[in-house]
Amino acid sequence: MNIVLILVENGVVPMRxxxxxxxxxxxxxxxVDAHTSTSDTxxxxxxxxxxxxxxxxxQGQGKKFYAALWEACDSLSRQIAADGEGxxxxxxxxxxGTASAADARKAAMAIANSPLVKTAIxxxxxxxxxxxxxxxxxxxxxxxxxSISVFxxxxxxxxxxxxxQQLMRLPEVTISVDLGTNGGxxxxxxxxxxSRQYITINVDYHT
Length: 207
Description:
alpha+beta
């Protein structure tokens, strides 16, 4: 399979197959501690020497290639979050109900990067208030931990916090927030909890 594509990084669009959204929806939606490595690079390269037919975006084999590339990048991005320093849990933050994708990503990243959120998840504390306050909009918002609704239409829901706590003690935790703006946009971000080991690893680290 061949594709005319030189480099996809920081939104550079290739000639025939636009795979920039793959990076936007996967690698750019990963955060461990909000710091960016100077060596972080996503490269998708094809030199054309095989002489195969060029794939067209959104058609036939082009769609299959795009889907396979997205699946591989999504898996790798989850692994990056799960492999953070001192990580004990993979955390999935899903934001919906925003007017734009940018708003959704901003809210998701605010939740995912919050030290209070990350430490609550580390301790299995069902303190959904931290998730809501990090998103900064509460009037019509809703929030679920896993499948359990803990906040709905701007008000606390009658949730069994012991069951919420059980969900938060699992190795994978999903926090879903709907900002209630009636918008159709959303964003999914992968992150991890914040443990004592994170501090130990970075305190002891020397270049």
